[in-house]
Amino acid sequence: MSKRRAAKSSFWAQDPAVATQRQTKLKLAYAINRAIKSQKLVRASTAGVLDLAPQKVAHLRSYNLRGFSVEELAGFLTALNRSTQVTAAATISRLLHAESR
């Protein structure tokens, strides 16, 4: 094992709080990416929903999470879930309106 790899392994072993935070970020990013995929959002529309630059969306999609906090990621997931709820409500409203005609 190289010295660099050994140093990296021991760093994670020494600070479990950092490992826990990273794991939390990865779980949130995974949920965010699943929501983006299920809603069939492209980068530009995702950037609009999350109020992010498209380049930051690309970082999020590729799990490059260094510039994101856990709180930010949780907020993104909430925004995407709200977007889903708004879309569903609009669809239901359209269907009900069409039936009443």
Question: Which short descriptors sum up this protein?
Answer:
elongated, mainly alpha, 434 Repressor (Amino-terminal Domain)
Provide an overview of this structure:
The chain is mostly helical and 101 residues long. It has a single domain, classed as lambda repressor-like DNA-binding domains (434 Repressor (Amino-terminal Domain), Orthogonal Bundle). It is 81% helix and 0% strand. The protein has 5 helices and no strands. The termini are far apart. 11% of the residues are buried. The model has no long low-confidence stretch (mean pLDDT 81).
How do the helices and strands line up, and which of them pair or pack?
Blueprint: H1 3-14, H2 16-38, H3 43-50, H4 54-61, H5 70-100
Helix pairs in contact: 2-5, 3-4
Radius of gyration: 19 Å
Number of domains: 1
Helices, by number, come to 5
- Give the averaged pLDDT, no decimals: 81
Helical proportion? Answer: over 70%
Supply the CATH superfamily name.
Answer: lambda repressor-like DNA-binding domains
- Helix/strand order: HHHHH
Query: How far apart are the first and last residues' alpha carbons, in Å?
Result: 72 Å
Class, according to the CATH hierarchy?
A: Mainly Alpha
Largest sheet: none
User: What is the SS-derived class?
Assistant: mainly alpha
CATH fold naming:
434 Repressor (Amino-terminal Domain)
Q: Give the low-pLDDT segments.
A: none
Q: At CATH's second level, what is the architecture?
A: Orthogonal Bundle
Q: How many strand units? A: 0
Share in β-strands: under 5%
- The dominant shape is elongated
